[in-house]
Specification:
The complex is a heterotrimer of chains A (312), B (537) and C (300). With 312 residues, chain A is mainly α. Chain A has 13 helices and no strands. Classes of the chains: A mainly alpha (312), B alpha/beta (537), C mainly alpha (300). Chains in contact: A-B, A-C, B-C. Chains A and C meet through helix 1, helix 6, helix 7, helix 11 and helix 12 of A and helix 5, helix 6, helix 10, helix 11 and helix 12 of C.
Chain lengths: 312, 537, 300
Amino acid sequence: MIYLARRLGFAVLVLWAAYTVSFAVLYLLSDPVATLVARASDGSAVTPAELAELTARYGLDQPLLVQYLDRLGAALHGDLGTSFVSGQPVGRTVAEALPPTLQIATAGLVLAVVLGAGVALLATYTRRRWLAHALMGLPSLAVSLPVFWVGLMLVQLFSFQLGWLPAVGARGPEALILPAITLALPTGALIAQVLVKSMSTALAEPYVTTARAKGVGPLAVHLRHALGNAAIPALTVLGYVTGNLLAGTVVVETVFTRPGLGRVTVEAVADQDVPLVQGVVLFAAVVFVVVNLVVDLIYPLLDPRVTQAVPA
Amino acid sequence: MSLLSVTDLQVDYRVAGGTVDALRGVSLEVAAGEVVAVVGESGSGKSTLAQAVIGLLAANGAVRAGSVALDGEELLGRSEKALRAVRGARIGLVPQDPGVSLNPVQKVGTQVAEVLRVHALADRRSAPARAVELLERAGIPDAVTRAGQYPHELSGGLRQRALIAVAIAASPALLIADEPTSALDATVARRILDHLEELRAATGSALLLVTHDLGVAADRADRIVVMSQGRIVEQGPTAEILERPTHPYTRELLAAAPGLAVVDALPPVSAAGTPIAEVRGLVKDFPLPRTRGSFRREHLRAVDDVSFTIARGETLALVGESGSGKSTTARLLLRLADPTSGQVFLDGSDVTTVRGSAWRDLRRRAQLVYQNPYASLDPRFAVREVITEPLRAFGVGTREEQAARAAELVDRVALPAAMLDRRPVELSGGQRQRVAIARALALSPDLVVCDEPVSALDVSVQAQVLELLHELQERDGLSYLFISHDLAVVRRVAHRVGVMQGGRLLELRPTGELFDDPHHEYTRTLLGAIAGQQARV
Amino acid sequence: MTDLLDPRTTAEPAPPPSSGTPPVAGRARLGRFLRRRPGLVVSVLVIVFVLVSAVFPSLFAPGDPTLAVPRQRSLPPGPGHWFGTDYLGRDVWTRVVHGTSLSLQATLTAVAVALVVGGLIGLLAGFVGGWVDEVLMRVVDVLLAIPPILLALALIAALGFGTTNVAIAVGVASVAQFARVMRAETLRVRGTVYVEAARAVGTRWWVSLGRHVLPNAAGPVLVLAVLEFGLAILAVSSLSFLGYGAPPPAPEWGSLVAEGRNYLATAWWMCAMPGLTIAATVLAVNRVSKALDGEWGRDR
């Protein structure tokens, strides 16, 4: 219980700090008033009265510390502010953009785990040196490719040349295939790299020799002994992986012209829509924190050495 | 016909830039029920031999020629599948380091049961109960509970017993034990070897015991095989090898083996004059991590009311097993750690609380030689820089004088001058430890604290380093505080010996007296655990 | 005691000296080393080529990157235009080579920001310890909770567009990673026996920091910096692909791909070639970083 409470406490702390950091970056470094003015005026001059009305509507007339506390208080009640551009509440904008993004992110994550773990397990299992070399080369190749370019090349090949799959849009499951692959490649490569490393480490451990000396077969050694230990370090990067997958949708949704959170982000940054950008950043932090919380809860199940009294 | 017959076995390892020969034509026989010890120093190929027999060479190793036959059946060249039927069933392996040889995420019972399941000696339902039986036979108390625990919940000794249970599970005709106790404390090691011997005798298995410790081999083996640089230099019945060694290398090993050679203890040194160092009532507490539900911090008393003096030119040894507080005591004496209470005197003056520059000045009077010469030298420094570092720290002499001093020191620790430009990676363990000693001597201290200075070295190298320490003492009147777990080593070097257990100094007496007439029960246990005595008596 | 797995660790007699070999032998060894790693040689050549193009683009592409020749619109790769031409008839090869400078400047800035800021934070946290370490590392934890690209986007939203801002944003987004590695290395080296040994012979702490801790901790951080170089190229080009980088006429790798995107169906080379250049550069950098990891990395 104490373990869980500590973890939860830490998660809340991270979220608060993420809020503070993003507030500091967005409200201190930029000039939201100027952005608002540029947006409202369409080039014509703004009267002082209009300006005052505008800044008051967004609470920008207050001192920064007051703004920070006000917004933090509102955020605690689920109110993340109002978009400068659309005038919609940020929370609703994010929630509305979420479903299509969740679709490709889930598809991408599943594909990435299957591809990454598959490549890693095969590369460390096979006794053919050329195959192992080739498989281990794949992840470093995949992480070197620009994601946006991979997406465009897939479109060129499968949509324009072969005509098998739609190039853009979000209609139907076929439209999900290319974006999911694009998203899964770098993520799967990362998973493969981590798992290859931890599998190689585990396979060199003396307990593997013990198992082999018992007469245990290679597949059982690989899966029952090595993977059980190698999965532990691989699991710790899951939070990082999920966060990056989410960030990857920014590029992928642009390339495939799909609606979603990524597109919302791109436009919000282009418009310098400060509250909306902060909303997206906070959402990413929440995802990271939740995934890590889940990982922490799974951890003691996988590794008996992590007793619940001593958090890792 | 012998049980195991190895003929002209040649193994090499593929390394960057070529191959290294590990076995260069090794032939030996093990009869059914026989105990054969393979003795050698690191690099001799003794473990490679054990691995080749069971067909588990490292990935970069390959058998070039020869034959390994079990009961007349050739094992080399068999398919992996055929070998699996042999491993665990007809040959059992007791591995080297119990700390890492059990799968950390699997229950102990499951790991024992696995070997039964693999060889179809038990089915899913009967395996767990059989595993508990085996753990009991291996001498694990409360085996039912232990079987349900994970390896990290067991002590090193218990883990090694669990591994023995795995090895004997299928009642193999041959057991291979690769340094089975070198990672354990001496008293634990002795009990485990005793138990292994009982089990082996009961089942009639043969045992191939791989060890660096001639004492262990002498105590346990019917026959001894001595290996050096990939070859067998001598083999024969144990008594013959011990009494009439023919090969010079065997003689060298015998002379160096701490437990075997009978050495007269050094006479006590006169305690007249101010002792070079003295500690009174030293206590050191370490805070333990907070436990659940308790807000008071618990403390671990690592050193508990320890007092002693060291005279000029004297070697005082502190012996004890891991966790006895001997190393902490040494660090307190050097003021590298602060005592919770008690006093430290160097050359008559109280230095318990000195700080700043006075603390730094202590470094000129008392120096330290660490256990592991691989870790105590900065890998980026050349030997010259290592040795002159203390001189630079205190601004002693000009650059030329420092260089001259480095040359002189290297000469004193009997290293060639050419070593000055080498880096630690290019040196052997013994050479590194000589460099560390030279560094300790650079400021001409009166007292050198040696923390397990030879326990990371091979026995023949150990003897050379101990000899060097002795010579330096004779010439310069150095005093040593010698920390060791190895009573046999201590017997050779110390004038007086203190025995520590659980932070307390149990008895502190002249070496000869302590060894001949130990007062304390624990001291007697420690002395009894020295390998090689059964053979010597 | 383990002479089983690795015969290289045999303690006695001493291993052969590796330094102090005569230069001729050293050169022969280097030659052998390189001949066994053709991929590494190619990678180094690619990097050298990229660096030279950044400084002297006209050496490899004497033409004008903005010169439009309407008669030569959308020509596929071939002799004369071996990366093809774009929708205005500009030579893609020339534009890629001349875009190197801008892309590389941004990348270098990003890596420098990450290395200097992150390195200092990590060194401070690791060496000082105590509450300083505690506070700095909590901040780093928070930064690690936000995906780097999103953090960079937030910074761009605050700072505005332009190559320099993109570079700074990418650099700041990687600060946490550097701080973590630097701190871990500092702690590792600070805890080694040889640093304690230096203290035990009376070496002052700041001398130890300079002579033992920094040189021994630097290796993995520099390896990370090389790796980060590759990641920064990708991040910078992604952000300029999204349109936050240099304004249109100026050639830059990411924006070249973005420009070609509208002609993907008819003139694939406009996208493919600049993208391929990015991929080749990153691949080369990663290969070199892997080689350095063996040299400077943890396993010495």
